[in-house]
Each structure stands twice: as C-alpha cells, then as structure tokens.
UniProtKB/TrEMBL annotation:
GO terms for cellular component: cytoplasm. PANTHER family: GLUTAMINE SYNTHETASE. InterPro entries: Gln_synt_N_sf, Gln_synth/guanido_kin_cat_dom, Gln_synth_cat_dom, Glutamine_Synthetase. It is found in: Cytoplasm. Keywords: ATP-binding, Cytoplasm, Ligase, Nucleotide-binding. It comes from Pelobates cultripes. Belongs to the glutamine synthetase family. SUPFAM superfamilies: Glutamine synthetase, N-terminal domain, Glutamine synthetase/guanido kinase. The lineage of its organism: Eukaryota, Metazoa, Chordata, Craniata, Vertebrata. One of its GO terms (biological process) is glutamine biosynthetic process. This is Glutamine synthetase.
Length: 366
C-alpha cells in the first residue's frame, strides 16, 4: 500500500468527542494567508471572546515571517490584515476562517501579496460590474508524489477518459471532492460545481461568478479548505500544472469573464472587442498566468489535449484547443461571457483578474 501521512492513521472518530465539547462562549478564528511562493497557504488560530459579526470585528494579528521565510531575520514580525470572513467547516459555528493580506513590518504589502493592487484596479472599474468564474483543476497525490490510487500494474483503459467519469477504474478520491464541496458550501464559498477531470485522480471545482476582488478571495479560501481536507485524508492536492512530466494531461485554471455590457443584449460585440485586445497582449498575459513568469505554463500549454500552444494566441467558438473560447450558447444568444483557458492551475487569481481588467477595460498595451 502506498505510504500515507501519519495524521490520516489517527482515529478520526475519537477526535469527534473533543470537537463536540462546548467552547464556553469563546470563538476560534483561523487566520489564513498566502505563502511566500504565492502558491500555498498558511494558517494559525486565535481565540476571541466574542463572535465577530463582520470583518471589521476581527483584529489584525502578526506572525513570525522568518518561520514562513517571508521576512528577514532583523525584521521578522509581519502583519495579518483580515479581509474576508467565512464560516469554519472544520470546527463549525460560531468559529470562523478569515482570509488575510500580509504586510511587512513597514506596512507595505509582502512580495506575495498581490491583492492590494488588484483591489485598487477593481475599485477603479466597479461600474463595469466585472464577473469572474474560475475552474480550479488539481491532482491528488500520495505523500511520495505518486498519483493517488493508481495501480502498480498497467490497466487498459486507465489512460485518461476520466473526465466526468464514474467507477473505480476511472476516478480516484471522490470522497475528498465531495467533502470539499460540502465544506465550501458551509463556509459560504461561491462554489458552483465539481467534476472528474481527464486523468484518473485529477479533479476540478468551479467558483463563481463573483464580482471583482471576490473571485480571488473565494478561490483562495476554497484552496485552503481543499488542502485542509486532504490533511484529514492523508493525501496531497497539487496545483502544479504538470506533476508527472511524462504524462500528457495537465491542470489549468480556466477563467470565465464578463462585464455588464457583455451580459446585456448585443454583448457579443463587447466580448469580441475584449478578445481582440487580449490577443495583442498575449505575452504579457502568459507572464502573469502562472507564478513563474510563464515557465509553469511552458510545461502545460503544449497544444496537446484541450490546450493551446503557449507561443500562439488563438480564439474560437466552442473550441477547446484555443487560448480563448466563446461558449456555444453565448454565440447563440449574442451575449454572456468568454473563457480564457490559459491560466495555470497554480495561478494567482489576483494577478490574473488584474491583468484581464487592465487589458480589456483600462486599454493597457505592450
Ligand atoms: P467548462 O464548460 O469550461 O468546463 P465550467 O462549467 O466548468 O465550464 O465553468 C464555468 C464557469 O463560468 C463557472 O466558474 C461559472 O461561475 C462561470 N460563469 C458563468 N457565467 C458567467 C458570467 N456571466 N461571467 C463570468 N463567469 C461566468
Ligand atoms: Mn511563538
Ligand atoms: Mn470546467
Ligand atoms: Mn477542466
Ligand atoms: Mn473550461
């Protein structure tokens, strides 16, 4: 049997007895933030003696940035500024999860804090009512980095074809997917669906549509909940676009986008205008669609199964091998939204949404 982490051997039923104990009027607030690399998450928990009713009622906090490699040794205290509160699906009501921005000791944003500039841009264009929906793909691995559940021996048929699959020869780890879906709903995440993806043990969840900065906040907390649930199961969920380099399938994070104009009668023209602008800035978008300046997507966007080629900008109606797709029903109705298929699974939604707004609404070029 594949190695699993020790914590998943613990008897979870025993834990239930303690989790049910009354809290004496106190409330646990788990502060969640984006890590040094801008790819993972960190958390720590604080007791409040009241239940916060809004984000303003949650105090700022600090952490040791040396421990997370986010600070220098002579300036290690960093600030956690609460920005979005959710219900805690692990320790349940009245406990909270709170997404935080990270500030350095001089109160400027930490390197991986891309939310501040994104928020400024979103505030600037709020009259356009920009909506985003993101399709987060991920792959389940065991602690040794092997795809979760794959048999040692080759099984005919176990080479993909698992998209929306059902059955033990097609999909591995549905328990995690279903727990994550419920936990997100409980928390108040705008999760709008899930499906099995092309590779066995690859899955997808969708968040949205969310307006402006909300998409980044909801997607990051949904990612936190996924990693936290995987802890309970002794499994790793990786957002790396291609953890198995020899295997043709890869993980992306398609982003669907619309403005008020695109959603109203005749909006298809606005959609086509926006796509034209995006086509003129392909390289810039590729450079912000993964956390390594395009290097992650270079492994993924090969023009293979349902991907475009990283070096070309392409678009089409109902075509899944292009950079940007106009869904079939959008073309039919003459309004709606479009799908940019380029962002990598490990993209930072704040960087991706900011770039889309800069190009399509603020008309930035170059
Ligand atoms: P696909 O057919 O590409 O697999 P999905 O069903 O997985 O599409 O995801 C569709 C995404 O589009 C969801 O995240 C949803 O929130 C989003 N979406 C739907 N309508 C809009 C809209 N008007 N503007 C922006 N995003 C939208
Ligand atoms: Mn300490
Ligand atoms: Mn999808
Ligand atoms: Mn998908
Ligand atoms: Mn898609």
């Amino acid at each position: 049997m594949a190695a699993v982490s020790l914590s998943s051997y613990l008897i979870k039923g025993l834990k239930e007895q303690y989790m049910k104990l009354p809290q004496g009027g106190k409330v646990q607030v788990t502060y969640v933030w984006i890590d040094k690399n801008g790819e993972g998450v960190c958390c720590k928990t604080k007791t409040l003696d009241y239940e916060p009713k809004s984000i303003e009622e949650i105090p700022e906090w600090t952490f040791n940035g040396l421990g997370t490699r986010q600070a220098e040794s002579d300036n290690c205290g960093m600030y956690l500024v609460p920005v979005k509160m959710f219900r805690d699906p692990f320790s349940l009501d009245p406990n909270k999860l709170v997404l935080c921005e990270v500030l350095k000791s001089n109160r400027t944003p930490a390197e991986s804090n891309l939310r501040q500039t994104c928020k400024k841009i979103m505030d600037l264009v709020k009259d356009h009512r920009p909506w985003f929906g993101m399709e987060q793909e991920y792959i389940l691995l065991d602690i040794n980095g092997q795809p979760y559940g794959w048999p040692d021996k080759y099984i005919p048929g176990l080479r993909g074809h698992s998209y929306c699959g059902v059955g033990i020869e097609k999909v591995f780890g549905r328990d995690i997917v279903e727990c994550h879906y419920k936990a997100c709903l409980y928390a108040g995440i705008e999760i709008c669906g899930i499906n099995g993806e092309a590779m066995p043990s690859q899955w997808e969840f969708q968040v949205g549509p969310c307006e402006g900065i909300e998409i980044g906040d909801h997607l990051w907390m949904a990612r936190f909940i996924l990693h936290r649930i995987c802890e309970d199961f002794g499994i790793v969920a990786t957002l790396d676009p291609k953890p198995m380099p020899d295997y043709k399938y890869a993980s992306g994070c398609h982003i669907n986008y619309s403005t008020e104009n695109m959603r109203t009668k005749g909006g298809l023209k606005d959609i086509k205008d926006a796509i034209k602008k995006l086509g003129k800035r392909h390289n810039y978008h590729i450079s912000v669609y993964d956390p390594h300046g395009g290097n992650d997507n270079a492994r993924r966007l090969t023009g293979g199964i349902s991907t475009s080629n990283i070096h070309e900008f392409t678009t089409g109606i109902n075509n899944c091998s292009v950079s940007i797709r106009i869904p079939h029903q959008v073309e039919k109705e003459g309004k709606g939204y479009f799908e940019d298929r380029r962002p990598s699974a490990n993209c930072n939604p704040y960087a991706v949404t900011e770039a889309i707004i800069r190009t399509t609404i603020l008309n930035k070029t170059g």
